[in-house]
Amino acid sequence: MSTRTLRIAMSGVTGRMGYRQHLVRSILPIREAGGVVAPDGSRVQVEPVLVGRSEDKLRELAARHGVEEWTTDVDGVVNDPSVDVYFDAQVTSRRAAALTAAMKAGKHVFTEKPTAETLDEAVDLARLAMTTGVTVGVVHDKLYLPGLVKLRRLVDEGFFGRILSLRGEFGYWVFEGDGQPAQRPSWNYRAEDGGGITVDMFCHWNYVLEGILGRVETVTARTATHIPARWDEQGREYAATADDAAYGIFDVEGGVVAQINSSWAVRVFRDELVEFQVDGTHGSAVAGLNRCVAQHRSHTPMPVWNPDLPVTEPFRDQWLEVPANAELDNGFKRQWEEFLLDVAAGRPHRYDLASAARGVQLAELGLRSSAEGRRLEVPEIVL
Ligand SMILES: NC(=O)c1ccc[n+]([C@@H]2O[C@H](COP(=O)([O-])OP(=O)(O)OC[C@H]3O[C@@H](n4cnc5c(N)ncnc54)[C@H](O)[C@@H]3O)[C@@H](O)[C@H]2O)c1
């Protein structure tokens, strides 16, 4: 059977996501396995070309992982006819220009989210993709997480009856950086550098809600900057100008009310860093990154409110584990594999720039809702 090798220019690989999730957890293991196998038995192999600004960092990374090619010449690599795919995990503020150049050069594109800082830019990118005809994939990693795959299966099987609500809790304490070092990059906390938790997370919540429940129709948000000063990678104090928490309520089609808290200023008393509870007339489920537990109507206990008595119900023990029933590998890798097969087959990828634009739209409307103190409709985007 034939093997086709796709050369992938990978930009932003010195960063947290580009390095860990995309290079080390996705592309290198795919290369190591000899590529992705298509249903007809043919293979799609990958060959990364590392792209960035620092020769030293790229040389060191390439040597550490046995990657032969790297370059600081972004224009050169984007216009190199032997390169098939451009991948972008740079800081958000660099993304729209980089994706535009790559698509204009005829490259297939796989990119981190958000695709742009503004809705107008995100829509322009989606329109450009339609005219160039390249295959475009935008990271929708949460939908590939084992916990959410199981949750989606429960929806598909009609487990919930009529779905009433979803509540999500995302977050953890991000250290300020004065004592212990911060575990996220400092640009995340500066609005002028594309930071902010609303911009970062609402694009995820849009595709999670669409992927599990349906279209998001309205948004009501309250954002906050709980920690006003932080310390950067050089130990210098800076003003945190971006929001570090966003409390959102979303009307989802079919009358479902979704409420998701996102915060980098919360301490975890949960089983996972993100958890979603879906309640329906016939059952409920709680999904995290990995686990999903469910409780059917017939197994639902009858708690009776009485503050004078200690709790006797072991509530957490009353839920049943939802099995994976399949090998659910790293979510980023699984989306990469699907995208690579789409490129090889010359077909669109299901999570594209139009979906990404709706994510940017939700973030933009979330910030506006908070600033104006009101609920906003989410208009349909026409490309
Ligand atoms: N899918 C997810 O779950 C997820 C999680 C975190 C971040 N992200 C997204 O991934 C992207 C990168 O985030 P990160 O946390 O890895 O950030 P990071 O700061 O660790 O990495 C940013 C990368 O961009 C490069 N860079 C920085 N400034 C640049 C400039 N002016 N010009 C060119 N390159 C520049 C850096 O060298 C680095 O390679 C962001 O857009 C972020 O929204 C996605």
What does this structure look like?
The protein is globular. The chain folds into two domains: 3-141 and 331-352, NAD(P)-binding Rossmann-like Domain (Rossmann fold); 143-328 and 362-372, Dihydrodipicolinate Reductase, domain 2. The two termini are 40 Å apart. By secondary structure, it is α/β, with parallel strands linked by helices. It has helices at 16-32, 55-65, 74-78, 95-104, 119-132, 146-156, 197-212, 331-345, 353-372; strands at 3-11, 36-37, 43-51, 69-71, 85-88, 108-111, 136-138, 163-171, 216-224, 229-231, 237-239, 245-252, 256-263, 274-280, 283-287, 292-296, 320-321, 376-377. The strands form three sheets. It has a nine-stranded mixed β-sheet. Strands 1, 2, 3, 4, 5, 6 and 7 form a seven-stranded mixed β-sheet that branches. Helices cover 31% and strands 25% of the residues. The chain is built from nine helices and 18 strands. β12 and β13 (256-263) form a beta hairpin. α1 crosses α8 (331-345), α4 runs parallel beside α5 and α5 runs antiparallel to α9 (353-372). The model has no long low-confidence stretch (mean pLDDT 97). The structure holds nicotinamide-adenine-dinucleotide. Nicotinamide-adenine-dinucleotide is lined by residues 12, 14-18, 52-53, 89-92, 94, 112-113, 139, 141, 185, 200.
